[in-house]
Design a protein that fits this description.
Layout (H helix, E strand, L loop, with lengths): L15 H12 L4 H8 L3 H13 L13 H24 L11 E4 L21 E4 L3
Antiparallel strand pairs: 1-2
Length: 135
């Protein structure tokens, strides 16, 4: 029985300074292929870095976790919308003790006069009911 060794490739990461220096070498007159071979990387990666630097020079190569201004604003607005929807859904829920309108008064079973200053309305069979106050 033979054991297979899995070929694991390490993902290399490059600093923004390294990327800028590599692109600068290309801009100084060396070919993409020559610079890529000297640095031990793929030519298309170096070409991608060059395009990135040309298109968005100040915001090129943001790094891990660093986002551009627009992306940060979009992320903030999405979070704010998610929070507002969550709050709305909580407030929409009907709680069993909450009234649907201000004019509703619960009818509660019990002896009349157990709460001073309140008139009690008795329900048949002692079941809780809602009574519409007309004032």
């Amino acid at each position: 029985m033979t054991k297979k060794k899995s070929a694991t490739r390490l993902r290399r990461s490059f600093t923004p300074e390294f990327k800028r220096d590599a692109v600068r070498l290309v801009q100084e007159g060396k070919t993409l292929t020559e610079v890529a071979q000297n640095l031990g990387m793929a030519r298309n990666l170096l070409e991608y870095w060059k395009r990135q630097l040309e298109q968005k020079s100040p915001e090129a190569f943001p790094g891990h976790g660093n986002v551009s201004g627009d992306a940060a604003e979009i992320s903030r607005l999405k979070k704010e919308l998610r929070d507002a929807k969550e709050e709305r859904d909580i407030l929409k829920k009907r709680w069993p003790t909450s009234r649907t309108t201000r004019s509703e008064v619960p009818v509660r079973p019990g002896a009349p006069g157990d709460l001073p200053g309140r008139q009690d309305v008795r329900s048949p069979e002692g079941l809780p009911q809602w009574v519409l106050c007309v004032a």
